[in-house]
Amino acid sequence: MKYDFIVVGHGLAGAILSYTLRKRGHQVLVIDEPRPSSASRVAAGLLNPVAGKRFAKSWMADEFIPAADAFYAELEARFGQELFTHKPIYKIFSSIEEQNTWMARSGNEGWNDFILGTYTQRTGQPDIHDPYGGLMIGRAGNLLVETMLHLLTEELLAQGLLLPERFEMDELQLTSQGVKYKEYEARHLVFCEGFQVIHNPYFRWLPVQPTKGEVLEVQAQNFNPECIYNKAVYVVPIGGSRFLVGATYDWREPDEQPSAEGRQELATRFSQITSQHFSITNHRAGIRPAVRDRKPLVGVHPQYPQLSVFNGMGSKGVLMAPYLAQHFAAALAGEAEVMPDIRISRYLSLYYDYIKPQNTQP
Ligand SMILES: Cc1cc2nc3c(=O)[nH]c(=O)nc-3n(C[C@H](O)[C@H](O)[C@H](O)COP(=O)(O)OP(=O)(O)OC[C@H]3O[C@@H](n4cnc5c(N)ncnc54)[C@H](O)[C@@H]3O)c2cc1C
Questions:
Q1: Overall pTM > 0.90
Q2: In the CATH scheme, what is the code of domain 2-42+146-207+293-358?
Q3: Short-list 220, 212, 289, CA closest to 258
Q4: Ligand 1 site: residues with CB under 6 angstroms?
């Protein structure tokens, strides 16, 4: 059977890219080994336009957010189900110093409608610990990632476009027309394997840093906030007095096992945000595909033009993937070049180091 593209991996990256390629009229076959603990299935689904402690606007937020809004709205219309909830994030200042850092930055140009309000004193929200006030961030919200993946998976299965199995590298042949995998042929193959790209002989030279994250689901009966809270962790309301509390970051020995240490850290952080009584109803862990320079990894293999990679979404897959999928789909169609910030060729020297001792064959 012949396809335009084979996409390996159906997490956030692979699902959004394969949908985008199908929308452009391409024939796409997806191969994905279902893993309940993939980063996408564990993710809290948050979209936050303000990055980190330095209060910088997220990289390319002005481009990424409209693309994300449009993409998730399109899927909602397609499946008749709400997937993305627009909700402000109340970023609680943890100290006077942090408040001052924001005040110094708040005059900068370009915040547009991202900031809904600044509070330098307690806001008086019941049971919320915000002695130094905080910042109300707009254009934010959260995506039901697992639900979105489930809907897209069902659609692919119904159309016979998904092989729910592990992709076996030994079965891949590179041909003059593209690739052959078992009985399937395609012009091009895109790897969207998340952190597992570190095992891919064609792309393992890329500087992916597997980063473990843990998230709790908690129930807090009398807590019904209108916003997402953030102070060291995020508290994301997901309905029915349930909240996702996440996430931790651990580079040391990334595995997908929830740990007692992670549970304790998240529970403590939750208590620092609110005095609401809560019970823990679930605890999950996954591994993010983080990158040294915190920019995604997108592009065609330097030596094998039939192969490419769409990866490295780090902790911002929900924000970045819709725009980048459109961007990369256009590049694969020869309509544009992949932008320099995300091109894998920025790490070409690592590729040359990688192939040197192996005499060019990966
Ligand atoms: C605890 C936690 C919380 C997070 N919270 C957020 C958040 O709030 N907002 C946000 O934007 N991001 C968040 N992230 C990050 C987000 O999850 C990632 O950016 C994103 O999920 C990466 O998607 P991916 O498709 O690249 O990788 P993955 O989700 O890992 O998907 C890769 C897929 O490829 C499949 N695969 C790999 N190798 C093979 C193979 N050989 N054969 C077949 N299939 C294969 C895997 O089974 C998997 O289904 C969080 C991550 C964690 C761990």
A1: yes
A2: 3.50.50.60
A3: 212
A4: 8-14, 31-33, 35, 38-40, 42-46, 166-167, 192-196, 213-215, 246-247, 286, 288-289, 311, 313-319
